[in-house]
Amino acid sequence: MSIFDIFDQLNKNKTPEPSGPVEYIIAGLGNPGAQYENTRHNAGFMTVDTLAEKYKFEIKKLKFKSLTADTVIAGKRCLVMKPSTFMNKSGEAISEAMNFYKISPENVIICYDDISLEPGKLRIRRKGSDGGHNGIKSIIYLTGSQDFPRVKIGVGAKPHKDYDLAAWVLGNFSSEDILKLHEATENACEAIELIVKGQTDKAMNKFN
Fold first, then answer.
1. What is the pTM of this model?
2. Which of 9, 113, 149, 161 has the lowest tally of Cβ within 10 angstroms?
3. Start-end of H helices in 56-133
């Protein structure tokens, strides 16, 4: 294989350079800092990290109170975000990016943890209430809309009703559950691709 063949192969494997306006925002919710890396509340961060691995881009540019990447997903230019505001203030980052790019809520995909789902399960929704999730509550409050699609990643319910919720979501996955989560984040990436393609119903039918 010649050096030119090697360069051709490398170029084929690269994600296309973004062009035109940003059409979608894809945000994974979580808390910044090494101490939160593998906690249940960071399932959203883990999902967009998996997306970055799949599409070979890095989420590292500081913008909109977030680590961001400007990339192409399913043929559309997308801003991928990991808000650095901590979970309860996620709406500050999301609303700032939406206002800058003039993105409608229907084109903002939010990925986050859901304690009502078993570890590894997904639930895709076109819109809805906050369901008691503080990150979603912040986004709804600061954007004034519930009409954004979301990819919920199951992290499992508290062991018993008296268990402290904060301690649970800020706790680490078991070794068994982390394997289920890795599979879930891969499925979530496929769901994100379908939503970006305008095939939300297909994503819901496949993963719900």
1. 0.89
2. 161
3. 90-101
Cα gap 87→133, rounded to integer Å: 9
d(CA 91, CA 75): 27
Q: Strands 150-154 and 108-114: what pairing?
A: parallel
Catalytic annotation present for 160: no
Task: Encode burial over 106-123: b for 16+ CB neighbours within 10 A, e otherwise.
Answer: ebbbbbbbbbebebbbbb
Q: Which domain holds residue 139?
A: 20-207
Is-contact 147 106, C-beta < 8 A? yes
Looking at every residue in the chain, the average pLDDT score rounds to: 91
Please state the length of the chain: 208
11 found inside a domain: no
Q: Percentage of residues in the chain with pLDDT exceeding 90?
A: 78
Q: Which amino acid would we find at residue 146? A: Q
Terminal-to-terminal C-alpha distance of the chain: 46
Q: What is the pLDDT of residues 194-204, one digit of tens each?
A: 999 999 999 99
How is residue 89 written in tokens?
A: 């203030």
- Domain annotation covers residue 7: no
Catalytic member of 41, 133, 160, 182: 41
User: Does residue 4 lie within any of the structural domains?
Assistant: no
Kindly state whether residue 14 falls inside one of the protein's structural domains: no
* Count of structural domains within the chain: 1
- Give the pLDDT score at 17: 72
